[in-house]
Each structure stands twice: as structure tokens, then as C-alpha cells.
Amino acid sequence: MLRDLKRRLFTHVWKALDLANGDSVHFKELIFSFFPHVVGVHEWEAGTKFSELFEIAPTTTIGRGFRMFRFTTVTDCPHDVLDENAADPLEADDLALQQLLGLVSKTTFLNDIIKVKGKCATSALEAYHSARLRYAPKRKFFTKKGAKIKSMLAILHWNTIQMAELDGNRRVMIQYQSYSKPRGEHRIITRKSTVEHPWKRIIVTRAMEQKRRYGPGVPIFADEDGEEMDIDVSIEDLFADSDTEVSSESESPSLLDD
Ligand SMILES: [Zn+2]
Fold first, then answer.
1. Of 106, 132, 151, which residue constitutes the final position of a domain?
2. What is the extent of the structural domain holding 165?
3. 246 Cα: distance to centroid of ligand 1 (angstroms)
């Protein structure tokens, strides 16, 4: 349930990054509009306190100062009229929802994005592209199918890191100043602890099992155009044990990485 909500929140974050256009106040308000939305409140007056729209359970530990948070620029949800496919509203005292609020209001997740001066959208997007380049280097040619699979892997990678970020599992290992030529200014670069990617082992193990069953030779896929593949592993399985652990190296892209 919590994982499900986190996934919905990510979709929301992507939209917010796009809409906020680098404005960090707007961005933060968009992010927190997720909570009233989930409980079925889609519109409010400017100046309304978050806590008036979404009841913060007494057991939920929220970030310092968050109780004062109010909406100044965002007064409705960024969606059109909800259709019948929209998820049913949840009760505000839903445990997973309260847990998520605790995480989002208090972890470095938001502050990190907001600290990135003015260019928050670019930063998250840069992190994704940097992950993608590692799975699909520019110098190599990939077939349409290969490119698609590699993009999917990069997305799994990016999501795993964001999940860890949201869980508060990423520590700042080192910060240093670096001169950015294209930007013509000094910037603070933050390196964070790496994140485990247990989904990789699951994919490799399943692929090996499949190959063993198939025997020698190049596998022939039933659907030659590769639009659909019969992969008997669900996204749920891949993330099942991804309660990420922290190790000491720092190579993975984070929201703050260059
Ligand atoms: Zn809404």
C-alpha cells in the first residue's frame, strides 16, 4: 500500500517538476497538493493551511515547521476533471498515507530538490539521463527493442534511487565545489551513498533460468516485432525486496549529482 502510494507520488513529482518550471515554492506546493488530492479534495482558497485540508494524525511525525505550511500559489490540483479511472479517495487516517506524509515532509527528499537553485526540473532529468547513458551508451547502436529495454532498465534504476531517497536511506558522503564550464559558475556538488539495486539480480536470475529452459541457440521470440514480451515477472516482484541498503561508494546519480 505504501509502495503503491509512493509510485503515485512519483508520477505526481514528475508532473510537478514540469509544471513548476524551476520555481521552488510552486514546486513544493504542487508536491503537497498530492495529499488533499488523494483524500478527494481538489480545490481550496489561497492561503489555506495544509493541515486544514489534510488531517495530520497525532501519531505522524512531520518535519519541523511543516505544521505551518500553507498553499499560497497552488489552489487546486494540476489535473482536469477526474474520470471514472481515477483512484477512489482514501481516508486521511490511512496508515500508509500518514507514513508517506511523515517521509515527504521530513526527509531530505524535497529540500534537496528545492536547494537546487531554480533548476529543479533539469536536475532530476539530468540524473535520469545520466543513468540512461550508462545503460544505453550513445556510441553504441541499439535496435528499437534493445533501446526500449535499456530505457526500461534506466527507469528502474532511477526509481530505485528515488525510493531510497524517499525512505531517507541516502546519506551525503561528500560535498565539494566544482566549476561548471557551461554554467560559468562554481557549484556545490553533493555525492551520496550508493543504493542497492536488488531488481538487477532478479532479472539476471530469471534470464538465466529462461535460457537454461530454452537450451542452446538464439531464442526466437513469438512476437517478432518485439512490442510485447512474455516476461513472467511483475514490477511488484522487482521492487519486492528493494528496501534499499546503503553502502559507502558513491557512484549512482542522485538528484543533486551533476
Ligand atoms: Zn485532485
1. 106
2. 119-258
3. 35
Question: pTM for the whole thing?
Answer: 0.54
Answer whether residue 113 is part of any domain. Answer: no
For 20, residues 6+ apart whose C-beta sits below 8 A from its C-beta are 26, 27, 30, 120, 121
More confident residue, 149 or 253: 149
Which residues, chain by chain, have CB under 5 Å from ion ligand 1? Answer: 37, 42, 77
Do residues 123 and 236 both lie within one domain?
yes
Read off the pLDDT of residues 208-245 as tens digits, 9 standing for 90 and up.
Answer: 998 898 888 877 665 545 444 445 556 566 665 544 43
Tell me: pLDDT of 156 over 60.
yes
What span, in angstroms and rounded, lies between the C-alpha atoms of 127 and 254?
Answer: 6
Q: How far is the CA of 81 from the centre of ligand 1 (A)?
A: 8
How far apart CA 77 and CA 81 sit, in angstroms, is 10
Ligand 1 centre to CA of 201 (Å) is 38
